[in-house]
Amino acid sequence: MNTHSGFKKVYVIEQTNSIKHLLKGVKKPLILDLTKMDKSSIDDIKSLISTETIQISSAIAIVLRSSLKKIAVNTLLTLKSSKTVCPCQCFLNFNDAETWLTKYNQ
Q1: Which of 40, 52, 57, 64 has fewest C-beta within 10 Å?
Q2: Domain residues of the chain, as ranges?
């Protein structure tokens, strides 16, 4: 996906509702792989960690290409984590994200 439409609130809500229906209310770990995105701002990434996404996820791992963006987003997620019940963390590779999520698989 090389478009910013994936960050639009209506798209996130629509996808979340579809996933919620498929999971029948059971929360599962979620990996958001943004490595193929040409551009994604920190605000775009924050918009993916919405109330709707947290409702379907036991934990969220975000895979990015940029080390600087990873540090910035992890810092914001640490500050926000006291307000959410869904652990979130950024990674630079899929394997690390998948390993971290295994402890949140119900």
Answers
A1: 52
A2: 4-104
Instruction: Say if residues 11 and 41 touch (Cβ distance below 8 Å).
Output: no
* Closest by CA position to 52, among listed 87, 9, 101, 1: 9
Side chain identity at 106, as an amino acid letter? Q
Indicate the pTM of the whole model. 0.72
Q: Tens digit of pLDDT for each residue in 12-58?
A: 556 666 666 566 778 888 888 888 877 777 777 777 777 677 777 88
- The residue type of 24 is K
Tokens representing residue 31 in the block: 């990996």
Cβ-in-10-Å burial (0-12, 13-18, 19+) of 67 comes to exposed
Q: Are strands 88-91 and 28-33 parallel, antiparallel or unpaired?
A: unpaired
